[in-house]
Amino acid sequence: MSNLLLADLAASGVKQIPSGYIRPITDRPNLSDVQISHDSIPLIDLHGLNGPSRSLVIKQISQACENDGFFQVKNHGISEEMIGKIMNIARQFFKLPESERLKTYSDDPTKTTRLSTSFNVNSEKISSWRDFLRLHCYPLEDYMHEWPCNPPSFRRDVAEYCTSIRGLVLRVLEAISESLGLERDYIDKKIGKHGQHMAMNYYPPCPQPELTYGLPGHTDPNLITILLQDEVPGLQVLRDGKWIAVNPVPNTFIINIGDQMQVLSNDRYKSVLHRAVVNSEKERISIPTFYCPSQDTVIGPPEEMVDDDHPAVYRDFTYGEYYEKFWNRDEEPRRSGEDDAQLMAREFFKLPENSDEHRRSIRLVTENGQLKTGSTCRAFNEIIWNGGLAAAKSRPEVSNPAA
Q: How far is CA 74 from CA 185, 319, 363, in A?
């Protein structure tokens, strides 16, 4: 099982990256063109959520979600000590002997605890310069027993961190609900049995960083992401067709809108393309927490956000349906910042404009506002993906979904 992990390849002292990591010339980072700014994304002080300044903070969050899709937060309630602990435990894990790390290795993206490399080794054509440990972490009691037991304090330290992060997420979701003009607990109730995953990303020094990515441009398929990163730059966000470097600010978290939040907001808030680049001198660690709806949650804009001037942009779908498409898509080289996951959100689940026929066809697979999850719905989705409404019409099990 040797050579499965990038960390061990990088540690061997390679001077050139293997060909499987080299991006086409048209799809390289072009690091010299990246814009560097000290205020690349808004920095919001969450302390104001607890007092008379709450409405001002809500407005700041609204503007950041609408204009940037990303913002940083300080005074978030998570101690510097806890941040230091989780960073240290991640570093210790990736320094363990290869044989110990490989105990959790898997290339199956459905596994709830797994160590792997790149992004999706089963489908991608070009690898990314990253190893990662992915953990499901809510409810804790369902998953902790699967986690690595080395380093010895891993489970305890990660569990404490996950619990604290969940508290931060719930506060932010309340604020986002309010910023959309909804009840404070709307999103909390909407997403059903919450899902929480986290990753520990390890980006080793790369001898030729201009030829590859830590992660290529992508949007996040979940609801919202909370990112902790060390002091080494690497995150970049696409804005107005330009990549902007987001330099680390100590003891802050970066929050970004995911695809599900874009749909829930009826396109008011944006799930923005972002990427991770690497460097030749320093390793980098980032720890994102992905907050998700339950698999059977029906995602769609609330009635309060839909009217004649703001018609629904997307049809309703389940998060499980979306996530399956995200993981099973065939990866193609990105062109001009285009990403398959973003394409799904904006095209596959989008209601075509000025098309009553398509709108009627979408309603065929709903019943009392709930998306049907049986074979009829799956067949309809497959047809829309592969051939459109004309093909759907030719299938009797789709034309008569009540049968």
A: 23, 30, 44
